[in-house]
Hints:
Its main location: membrane. By secondary structure, this protein is an all-beta fold. It has no helices and 8 strands. The strands form 4 sheets. It has a two-stranded antiparallel ribbon. The model has no long low-confidence stretch (mean pLDDT 80).
Amino acid sequence: GQEKLSCNPRKENGSHVVLCELGNPMKAGAQITVDMELSVSGLEDMGDAITFQLQLRSKNSPSSSNASVTVTVPVEAQAEMELRGNSLPATTVLPTSWHRVEGSRRLEDHGIKVEHVYQLHNKGPSTVSGVTLRLAVPSQLDGRILLYLLELGTEGGMNCTNPPGLNAEQV
């Protein structure tokens, strides 16, 4: 038959140990099969595998075998990322008579200011670190300036690398 085991976590010799009582007394020559499901947290910095050492101990004297087995389980973090973007204002129309003023440092002489806001969300279930987001913004069309990239800002402890040509005319 199938039984649920009673297991108790504890620390032993600096290691985390889970002790499960399989049977007491157990008949001589008995054979049992144990399926264990372990829930382990804090695996973000464990690399690509975690190793468990399994050992069957007998309290009988003398103990016939206290052999241990090492089991390595691959670790794979899963997280779903979601990127949201918005432009403020949502639509912009330049007047047909408008022309960019060369050499000017006034913002309004270079066009209408449009702010693009992007939000990167981790939808889990795992935490993430070291995420790289590459955002390609078309700044020229047929050799003419399409978007003049003025500045780049971040929130939430992110690091960004400024693209080439950011505020090239120091507007």
